[in-house]
Protein 1
Amino acid sequence: MKNRKQAFLYVMLAIPIGLMIIPTVIVLAVALVPTGVAFILERGKGYYGGLTVGAMNLAGTAPYLADLWTEGHTVANAVGIITNVFAWLVFYGAAMLGWAIDSTTPAAVSAFMTITSGHRITALRAQQRELVQKWGPDVESVYAPEGGKAADAAAAQAAMMSAEPVAPGGRTR
Amino acid sequence: MAEAAADLRQAPVPQQRQGAPTLVPVPAAPAGAAESPASAPTPPKNGNGNGAKTNGAPSASGSFIVVRDRFTLYCDRPIPSLDMPNALAYEVADRKQEGRPLYALVCKSDMPARISVMRVLKGLEIPAILHMVDWGVAEWPLADRKCVIVIYHRPLGGRVMDSMNATFKRIPDHQFARAVIKPIADGLVELSLKGIAHRAIRPDNLYYMDEARTKIVLGDCVTSVPAHDQPVVMEPIESGMAMPSGRGAGTYADDMYSFGASVLMLNIGRHPMPGVSDAEIIRRKIATGSYSALVGDERMPVALIECLRGLLTDDPEQRWQATNIDLWLNGKRLTPIQAKAESQAQRPLRFADQEFHAVRPLAFAMHQNWEKAIGIISDGTLEIWIRRGHELNELADGIASAIKTATAWGGGNKADTDDVIVARVLSLMDPKAPVRLRDFRCFIEGFGAALAIAILRKQKLQPFTDFINRDLWRGWLTAQTGKTTADNQQFETVYRDLKNYLKDPNSGAGAERCVYELNEWLPCLSPLIDTQYVMEVKGVLPALDAASKSANTKLWPVDRHIAAFLRARYAKGTGAQIDAMNDSRPDRATIGMLSVLAIVQWRLGPETLYGLTGWVGGLMAPVINSYQNRNKCKDLEKEIPKMVRKGNLAELYNYLDNPEERQRDAEGFAWAKAEYATAEKLIYDFEHGQVDRQESAIKLGRQTGAVAATVIMTITLLIVLMGAVF
C-alpha cells in the first residue's frame, strides 16, 4: 500500500518533468538502450556490467546532450540528433567499450593475483625448509581444514605455548 | 677393605692341578711395572724366581706376585698337600720376617670366600686354629684375574689325614684328650665368642703345626662358604640333608658335632662308613641316631664313649659344649644323654616298598622317592596315618592346609603344584630339615650363598626363584616351633623384599639384586668386571675404566649385575639414577645410565676416568638426538670429545643434561612447530583457494571496470560541460 503511494507520487512528479524535458528524454531513450539491456542482463549479478556500460554509454551521449541543451532544447534538435548516424555510432560505440572493459578486467586482476600468491608460497616453503633443517622433521605438520582438525589444534596449542616464543639463540620473535 | 697391591711378573707354564682355576697364558707384564724399584721384590735366593725379568715371552718358571707389599707368593711353587677343595696352596715368603714358615691359599673364582670371617680372623692367634697372617685381593697370573689370597702359618707336620678316604695311624688314646680334644674345643669356644662357626672341621682339615707332629690345629675355614666342603658324615643330620652350598652359616653346636665326628675318625683311624652313600648315611643317622650310626660295630675306648655320645647328640640343645668337655676332662661323670624318642605309630605306613612307623624317616624317604610322595599325600593316606597312627592332629591339619594353599597358588602346571605340595608337606613333617624341592635342598639362612654359587657356576636358577616366589621359605618358617618370632620376622622381611626384587624385571632388581642383598661381601659378578674382584662400590668405576680397553663399547657399561650391585650396596646414592636408567625412552635411559656412573664418580671418585668416559661418551647418541635443535646437536657432537678428554663423567652429565638448555630447546621447538603450522596453513590457503580466488578476481575485476568507466564518464562530462560553458 505504502509502495503504491510512493510509486504514484514518483509518476506524478515524473510526468510534468518529462513533459518539460521531452527533447532530452528523446535523445536518452535512443542513446541509453544498451545501458537498459545491460541492466536487464546483469539483474541479480551485482549490476557491475550495467554500471560499466551505463557509465561509458552516458559518456558517449554527453556531447550530444550538451549540443541539445546549448543550441536549442527542442524536439526538432532532438530528432536531428537521433537521426544522425554518427551520433548512433558514438552512443553505441561507447557502450561497446563499456562491455569490453567489463569483460577484460576480471582476467587481468586474476592474473595479477596468481602471480603474487606464487611468490608468497615460494617464500613460505623456504621458511619451512629452514625450520626443518634447524629443528628436524619432527617440526613438520600437515594442515587439513576438515579432516585434520587435530593438526590444526596442535598448531594452535603450539602457538599458544609460544605466545612469547624464544627463538634459538635467545632472540624473541 | 683395601685391595692388596700386586706386582705382576712373567708367569710360568701353568701347571694344571685337579680342581685348579682355569689357567690361561699370561702375557708379559709391562716393562715399566717390572722395573719399578718400589714394587720389584727381592729375587728369591734359592730358586728359579725370575722377578726381575722384564722382557721376552712368558717364562716356564720364576714368576711371583707380591701381596700387600710384603708377601712374595711364588706362582710356580704349588703345595698340593695343603690344597683346599676350593683353594690352591702356594709357597710364600715374608719380606719383613725372612724364614717365617707361611703358605698362601689362592681361592677359586667360582666360590665366594668368607670375607667377613677373614676380617675377624686376620692376625688373630687362637689356640688350635691355623693362624691367618693376612689376606688380600691380588692379580693372579695363573687365572688371569684377581683372586682372594689368604696367607697362613704353614703347618710343618702336614695334614693329620691326607683325605677322607685315607687310613692313617690312629692317635694313641692316652694323648687324645689333652692333645686333641681340649685345645680344639677351646679354640672353637674362642671362635664362637667372636660370632664365628668354623664349619670345616674334618680330619683332612686338621694339621700338625710342628714337624714332630705333636700339636694339632684346625685348618682353613674361609675359602668356601660354610660347610660347603664337609662330607655328610661330618655334618649333623639336618645339615647333611642340605646341598653343600645351602647349609647356612651354622652354629657352634654344628661345629661341636663335626668335632665329635672328627674325634671318632681320629680314634678309629679311618672313615667310619666307607663307601656308604650320603643318603644311606643320613638314613642310618635318622634311624639309629648319629652316634650309633657312626660307631657301628667299632669298639670305642670306654673313656671316649661318653664324650662322643655328648658331641654326636642329634639334638643341638643337648649337644656337649666346651664346658661339658672340661667337666669330663676333670673326671666328672655327666648324666648320660637320652635321645628323645620319636612318636611311633602302631600300624606302619607302607611307602616305596618300606614300612614306616615314625614321621621323620618317612619324610626322608619321601624326599628320596619324590615322584611317589605326591601319591600318599593327595590320596589322604599320609594325613589319615598321621591323624590316627600318631594322633598328631595339628600336623595333619597343617598338611591338609598346605595342600589347599599350594593348589590355590599353583597355577596351571600340575607338576609344579605337586612339587610345591610335597616340599611344604616335607617341611611340616620334618621342620628341622632344610627346604627340599627335588634336588634343591637349602636352609633359608644358606639361601644367599647357594644362590651366589649357582650364579657363579651358571647353574639353573629356577629352583631358587621357585623357593622365593612360591613361598617355600614361608612354609618352612611356619613349620618352625623352636624359633622366636623375632627370628621369623627378620627372615619374613628379607624374603618379602627378595620376592619383590624377583617380580621386578628392571635393571637393579631380579636374581642379581637378591644375590647381592644376601651376600654382603660378594664381589660384583658382571662379566665386564668379574675378573677384577670388586667388592666395594668405589672399586666399580676403576674396574670399568680398565675394562673399557677390552670390552665391547657398543654395550652399556652398567649391566644388570652392576646395577644390582650398586643398588644393593649404595641404594641411597644411586636409586633414583637406576630408576631413570630403566626409563622406556632411550634418551632418558641413556642419560640415566650416565647419571648412575656420574654420581658414583662424583661421590666416591676417582677424579679422572678417561677410558670409561670415552666409552660412555660413545653411547650418548640417543641423548644428543633428543635435542630438537640440529645446531645444538652438532655442537654437542663436537663438544663431547673435549669432555671425554677431561675424564669426568659428572661434567659430561651436566653438559648433556643442562636443564636451561633443555628448556630453551623445548621452547624453541614449540615456536618452530607453530611457525611451520602457520606457514602450512597459509600455503594451503593459497593452493586450495584457487576457485575462490577466481570468483573474487572476477568480482574485483568487474568492480574495477565499473569504477574505471565511471571515472571516464565523469571526465567526459566535465570536458563537455567546460566546452559548453566556455
Protein 2
Amino acid sequence: MEGSTIIFYLLALLTVVSGILAVTATNILRAAISLLFALIGIAGIYFWLDYQFIAAVQIVVYVGGIVVLIIFSIFLTQSAGEKMPSQKLGRTVFSALAAFCGFALVLIQLFQHNFPISKDLTLTPKVADIGTQMLGVKEEGYALPFELVSMLLLAALIGCIVIAMRSKPQTT
Amino acid sequence: MMQPGLYHILIISAALFFIGVFGFFTRRNLITMLMSIELILNSVNLNFIAFNKYVWPHKMDGLFFSLFVIAIAAAEAAVAIAIIINLYRSHQSIDVEDAGEMKY
C-alpha cells in the first residue's frame, strides 16, 4: 500500500471521528475543539487532492475565523466547563435512525450511478488562473458573483453591528 | 484497501453531511446547532472539490462554488453569533426551547 493511500485513510478517519465527537460531546467547548479537528481534516483532504489554494482558504477562514468566533461566543454565553443537559432517549434514537436512513439512501444512489471519471487526474488549478477567472468579465468569468458576495459581506457586516447595537440603549 | 478515488471522498462527504443532520436534530443549544450547520456546509464543499478534481479537471467551477460557499458561510456564522449573543443578553439562555417568543 502506498503512503498517500495511508495518509488519505488517516485524514478520513480524523475527519469523521472528530465530526462525530463534535455533535455528541456533552461539554460544549470539547465539541468546538472536535469541530476544529474535523475542519483541519477536511483541509488535509484538500491538500491530498492537490488543491492547495482552497485548503489554505479553508484553514484561514474556518479554522482561524469561524471556530475562533464560536469559541469566543461560548465563553461569552456560558461557563466553559458546564455540561449540556442530555437529550431524551427517543429523540436521539429517532434522529440517529433518520440520519442513518438518509446516509444509506445516498450510498445506494451513489453506487448505482457511474460518474464519467476523467483520464488526467494530475491537473491542478494554478493560483494565477484562479485569480484570472475569478475577476474575469468574459465568458466563464466570475466577476459578477464576486461583486455580489462582496455586497453580501458588507450587508452581513452592517447587520451584525445593527443587531449587536440595538439592545444597548435599553439595557443602560 | 483500494486506491482512494472519487467514491471514497463522496462517502466521507455523505457521512459528514448526515453527522451534521444528526447533530442538528439532537442538539438544543444554538451554538452547537450552528456547529452542525458548519459540518453540513463543509461536506458540500468537499463534494464540489471532489467532482471538480475527478470529473472536470480542466475547469475550475467547483472550486469557485466552494470559495463562494465559504464566504457565505462566514457571513452566516457572524450574523448567527450576533443574534445568539443578543438573545443571550435578553433571555440569559441560548437554548432553543427558551427562544420560543422569537416565533411571533
Protein 3
Amino acid sequence: MAALLPTASGTPAATEIPVEPPAGMRRRKWIPYALLAPGLLWLAVFFVYPVFQLVMASLWDPSGSVETGYTFAWAFSNYADAWEMFHVQFLRSLGYALITTVVCLLLGYPLAYAIAIKGGRWKNLMLVGVIAPFFTSFLVRTYAWKAILSDSGPVVDFLKWAHLLGPDGRLLATEFAVIAGLVYNFLPFMVLPLYASLDKLDVRLLEAARDLYHGPVRSFFRVTLPLSMPGVIAGTLLTFIPSAGDYVNAQLLGGPNTQMIGSVIQSRFLVVNDYPIASALSVMLMVTILVLVTIYVSTAGTEEVV
Amino acid sequence: MTDQDLCIENVTKTFGGFTAVDDLTLTIPDGSFFALLGASGCGKTTTLRMVAGLEEPNAGRITLGGLDITRMRPYKRPVNTVFQSYALFPHMSVEDNVAFGLRRKGENRAETRRKVAEMLDLVQLGQYGSRRPAQLSGGQQQRVALARALVNNPEVLLLDEPLGALDLKLRRQMQIELKRIQTEVGITFVHVTHDQEEAMTMADTVAVMQAGRIEQLGAPAEMYEFPASAFVANFLGQSNLIKAEVTGQADGHVTVDAHGNRLAVPAGRCRVTSGTALLGVRPEKLHLADGPDAVPSGHAAVQGVVTDASFTGVSTQYLVRAPWGSELTVFVPNSGIANPALPGTEVAVHWSPAHSFLVGS
C-alpha cells in the first residue's frame, strides 16, 4: 500500500549492508512503538470499537426497536433484507462514484499537469486556487451549488435561453446535479496527489522520449502517465471512496430518484431508527469498497509504480 | 567530404539577452569522433541540443547529409542522444529502455529482441537486461544510456558530458570503451565535454569553444603543439606564456624581446608577427641546466631560481621564478639519473625554439 502515497519514491539501494546497531541504539527499540501508541489508541477507541459495534448491530434481531431494545441474534437475514430493499440505491451510489471518479480524473489530470509542468512561478498560486474551496465548509459550498442550479438560477436561465433545456426542464434533483456536486467537491482530492506525482516527473525523461522517436502523445502514454500512476491511484481512491458514501450532495442537489446509499443509511439510522438494516448497509458498503479497492490496486499494477 | 556530414551554418541561439551560440559554423565529417570542448556556459551543450532538436536556433541552418533538419521535430531526426543525467526510464527494465526507440520505429519483435541483446552485449551488460535502472551502478547506467541511443543506428550520436558523473578510474575505462565502440559501429559521435584530456584521448577532431564561438578546431596533437590563442594554450593542457615584443624577422624566425631576453620563434609557429605577443612553451618541453654554460647550443634560455619542486611520480614539477617575477612551470621526467634541484638553486631554463610558439596577447 506504500505505493499509494505519491510521495513514496525510489527503490532502496541495491546493496544495503545490514549493520548491527550499537548497544545504545538497540536499547531504544521501544521508541517506534511509543510513537505509534497515541495514534493506535485513538484508532482503537474511535475506529476499531465502532466498527465492531456496527458489525454486531447488523446482526441484531430485526424485531427489536429503540424503545424495546435489541438482542444479538446472528441475524444474517438483515443483509438479505437490506439488499432487497436498497440495492437500487446501493448500485446507483457505486455508479455515481465511478462516474465522479472518471470525470475528476479527466478534469484533474490536465489541471495537475498544467500546474506541475507549465506552472512556473504561478505554481503556488494555482495550488492555492485548488485548495481555496476548503476554506469554506463542505455543506455551505453544496448549498451554494443548490442556489446556482436552482430552477430560477442563472444556469437554468441560460440553458433555457439557449434552448438546451425545455421550458419545464430543471437541473436540481437530476443525476447531473448530484454528479456535478460530487465532482466539484472531490476534484481537489484528485488534483493534489496527481500534482504531487507530476511535479516529481523529470522533464529530461520527456526529452529522452522525444529523442527516441516518440511524439508528444506517445511520450505521454509511455512515460508521463506510467510515472504518474501513484498519483492516479491515490487520486482515484481519494475520490471514489468518499463519493460512494457521500449523502450531502444527493440530499441537497438530488431528488428521490437520485438517492444514494449514504442518504439511506443516514435516514435508517436517524429518521427510521432501523439500526440493524442501517448497520448492515454500512458494513456492505465498507466491504464492497474494500474489495473493489483491493482488486483495483492489484490490477492497476504497483509494479509499474516506482 | 561524404554525403552524411553534419553541417552547422551560421547558427545563433540566444536565451533572453544571453547569446549562447554566436554565429557558429562547423562541419562534422561523417564517421568521425568529434569533441566539442569548452568551459561550462560556452555554448557546447546548446549546440548539441540544437542538433538533437531540443532547442531551435534563432538564426542559421543545420543540415545532415544535405537534408535541412533545422526545424525538424526531435522525434523525426535520425539523431540520438546520450544525456548527461542518462535520463533512463525508471519504470522500465534495461531491455525495455534499450528497445524504446526500436519499438517506435516499428521493428518486428524478434528483430528488436535480437538487436537489444546484441547491443547489451556490446556494452557488456548482457546479464542485466531484466533489471531496473535503479539497480545498476552509475557506470552501468551510463552504458545503458549509450546502448539505448546506439541501438537505433542513428546517423549521428550526440553525447552530452556522458562521463561527467563517473569517478576518475571508471571515466578512463569508459573513454577507451567509447572509442572502441565508435570504431566498431562507425557512427559519427559528437561528444560534448569540459575535460580537455577526455577530448584529446577520444576525439579525432576537437573544437574548443568559448563564448558561443569556436576558438580553434583541429586534431588534438596539432592543437596541443600549436594552439591558436592564449585561451587554447591554457585550456588544452598547461602552457608557460611569456609576454614579448616582436622586434623583427630574420631567416625564417621571428625575433622577440621578452623582458630583455632576445628569443626567436620559427616563423611557421607564429600566430602573430608584430606588436605585443605571448611566447608559449609547454612545461614538458622546458629543461633545466645548472647555468648558462650548460645550455645546449641552439636552445633559448632564461635564468631563474627554483622556488618549488614537487615530485609526482612520473615527473618532478618545478616552479622557477624568472628575473621579471613570473614563474615558469617545468616538468622534468623522472628517468632516475639527475638529483632534483632544491628550492633556491639558480638554474637556466632552456628549450628548443622549435618547441615554442607565438600567440596574440
